[in-house]
Structure formats: structure tokens, C-alpha cells
Amino acid sequence: MSKVASGKIKKSSAKILDEFNASVMFDKELYLEDIEGSIAHVKMLLKQGIIDENAKTNIISGLNKIQKEIETDEYIFDIKDEDIHMSIENRLTTLIGDDAKRMHTARSRNDQVALDFRLFVLRKNAEIAQLLFGLEKVLLEIEKEHTDTLLPGMTHLQHAQPINFSYHLLAYSSMFKRDIQRFENSMKRNSISPIGCAALAGTPYQTDREYEAKLLGFSSVSINCLDTVSDRDFALEMLFNISVLVMHISRLSEEIILWSSSEFGFVELSDEYSTSSSIMPQKKNPDVPELLRGKTGRVYGNLISLLTVMKGLPLAYNKDMQEDKEGVFDSVKTACISIKILTEALKTMSIKKEAMLDATKKGHLSATDLADYLTSKCGYTFRDAYKLTGEIVGYADDKGKDMSELNLQELKKFEPKIKEDVIDILKLYNSMNARDSQGGTSVNSTKKQIEYFEEWLDKRG
Ligand code: ARG
């Protein structure tokens, strides 16, 4: 509605106000949800005898035509219409005349926008979860290949204990599984229909909110109208869920960046997912994981921004809430492209087993195994064993060897009770394989974890 037509305001608005006030240039993203919402609404109005069959039919065929116009780029979005809701209603009026004016009976833009936005967010939850399943599948493919690929497991970015590469990636499979569950939980929990709440207080018309909710695929109807038109928790939840997701993506990206440096050399990104330097011809840059890591900034910003918008708002709707959408659109787009690009980059990345293996030979990764040996086989307390192992590490350093390369004679000088069997125990592969406790890195345990994810993915189709 151009503002001239409203009751209280007689003059048309300043052009700069139209620009400031309008949201249609971004909330047009919600056109489909808006049209679907209106179709459900007029079906309910007909069922309740509030409008007649003729009006319903005209409105629905007009809305279908508008959908086509938008999808074929014939539609003109004009900031004078303010937002997507008024834009579609005004266009409908042009197309079908007076019947269009019946569409807004027993609703307000406040419940309309709450409906459109919620539907959009619910659908995006499903889309993101689906993309994450694709990422999980690619991770699983790599994991199946690398249960024997040794690399240094780290704490504090220092070599700690040997693990296998699948085991390392399975940590990310676990994170992304939690992400999927978070999106799915939000989707289930927020499947609550806001439509029918009208401006803030409900409506005197004999509406059927249950029926309308069912038409739109919601599981239930909201309890309190005042809350419903004021509530953006579902959008905040989406922004939070995406924030956790991109934090996980960023951690993996950080590792890929490190791993593809000359210092590590554990992986090489494919040419399609790498970029070059404009000046240094020898360079292959990990721009993809760097951008993925960098995207966290805007995504966290979007979360903080909406939390801030919402924090002081009196009930019910306030125009501040129009600021809820762009951040969500941006975070959703960022999440989708990030998952897609990470999936492809992983699929095409080469894994340098030799470099990983070489790296395990630095840092005395089996030192804990020697301490455990002294404890279980030579009668030491763990603390004394820890101390003696420290001395042996110092000796190995002086000799320029890794502890796993010391021979029996060298070890016996420190403790005569040490026997031949220690040599096998200190081998890095055996050290990795010894950690067979549930959830540990042994090949056996790693394979169980792979099976777990395989079954989970199979079950989910
Ligand atoms: N464009 C508005 C928004 O996005 C729609 C709701 C407008 N409601 C109102 N009472 N002005 O929030």
C-alpha cells in the first residue's frame, strides 16, 4: 500500500524514507513463502465462510500468475510497495481487482511476515542438513582409505601421540553429525504456525488456525499471539546453528591450511580448488579454506546483530524486526556455499601419506607407551616412569634420534628390567594401534567408528 492510501497519513512519503523503510529489495527472497501463505489463508477464509469460492479462485489464480512473473523475471519490485507482502498484494489488485482486497482479511503483516520467515527458515534447516549429509559421505569415503595412515596427533599444536588419519577426520564427522542434529531439532521444534495471530491480539473472525497450519505443513499452532508476532527465536537459532557449523568448518579449514604448507605437506588441494599468487609464480594458495575460515566473521556478526536488535524490544511487533532478515539470508547462503565448496575441496584433495608418516618420526610420539611399559612391566609408579621416560627422551634428543629408534641396549642402560618386547611397543604404528579403548585411535576402534557413521548415514538415506 503506498502510504497515501492509509488513514492517518495524507501526504506521500519522502523518497528517502521509501528507501530507508522498504525491505522489498531483500525480503523478495520470501516471495514463495508469501504466496503459499496467502493461498493457505484464502482457503481457510473460504472454509470458514469468510470469503466466497469465486474470490478464493480469483486470488489463487492471480497469485499463481505472480509466482510465474517473479520466476521469469517479468515482475517489477518497487520500493514504493515497501515490502514483499504489499508488493504482491498490490500486484494482485492490479491483476484481479477488488477480490485481491479480501486476501488480507483476518491477518496482519505481523503474522504474515512471521509466517513467511519461519517457513523460509524451516526449509533452509532441511536444505543445510541435506548438504551436510553430502559432506559426511565424502568424509567417510576418505576415512575408509586411511585407517593405516599414521600422522602425529597433537595437543597445543605439538606432537603428542600417533593417530591415524581416518581417526582425525572422524572427529569432524562427529562435529558435522551434531550440526545436522541441531538443524533437524530446530526444524522439528519450530514447526509451529504463527498465521492467524493477526496484528498482536488475535482476530474476531471465526478463523481455523489448525486448518491453515495443516495446509502449510506445520506440526502445531502457536499458543499466544502476542508472543508469536514478537518472536524471532527461530531465526536466532538458525543463526546460532550456522555459527557452530562454520566454526567447525573453520577448524577443519585451519588444519587444511596448515597441512598444505611446506612445513607440513600432509595434503595438497587440487588445482580446481586452489589459487595462484599474482606475483609469485611458484605459489599455490589455499584461498578456499582461508575464505571458509574468514566467513565465520560475518556469520557470528549476523548472530550478534539480531540478538542486539531483539534485546530491548517491547511487545509486540516493532519495525526494528525488519532488520532480522538480511543477516539470516546471508548466513544461510554462506552456510550452503561453504558446505558445497568444502565437500568438493575434500573430494579432490590429495593426501600425502609419506609426509604424514615422516612427521610421526619427530617428537617421540611413543613416549607415553614407554612410561606405560615401565609402569606395567617394570614395577614403576606412573610418576617415576614419567620421569625416567623424560630422561630417555633427553638422551634420544642428544643422539638426534626419535625415541622409537633407540635400541634395547640403549634403553637397558636406563632400566635393566626393560626387555626385548619394548621395541615393538615403541613402534609408532603399534603405539597408535594400542589405543584400543572405546572411541580410541586403534585401527579396530577406528573401523568401528567408520561403521557407526556408515550405518547412521545409511539409515538416513
Ligand atoms: N516488512 C516488515 C518486516 O519485515 C513486515 C511487517 C510489517 N509490519 C508492520 N506492522 N509494519 O518486518
Report on this model:
The radius of gyration is 31 Å and the shape is elongated. α3 packs antiparallel against α4. 62% of the residues lie in helices and 5% in strands. The chain is mostly helical. The longest helix has 37 residues. Strands 1-2 form a two-stranded antiparallel ribbon. A two-stranded parallel ribbon has the order 3-4. A two-stranded antiparallel ribbon has the order 5-6. Arginine (ARG) binds next to α6.
Order of helices and strands: HHHHHHEEHEHEHHEHHEHHHHHHH
* E-strand count: 6
Largest sheet: 2 strands, antiparallel
Shape: elongated
Sheet/helix structural class: mainly alpha
Overall pLDDT score = 96
Q: Low-confidence spans: pLDDT under 50, at least 5 residues? A: none
Tally of individual helices: 19
| Residue share in β-strands | under 5%
**Major sheet strand order:** 1-2
Helix fraction, binned, reads: 55-70%
How far apart, in Å, are the first and last alpha carbons?
47 Å
In short:
With 461 residues, this protein is mainly alpha-helical. The chain has helices at residues 15-21, 24-27, 31-47, 53-71, 84-96, 109-145, 165-189, 209-215, 225-230, 233-259, 287-310, 325-347, 353-360, 367-377, 382-399, 408-414, 421-426, 428-434, 443-460; strands at 150-155, 158-164, 192-193, 220-221, 267-268, 350-351.
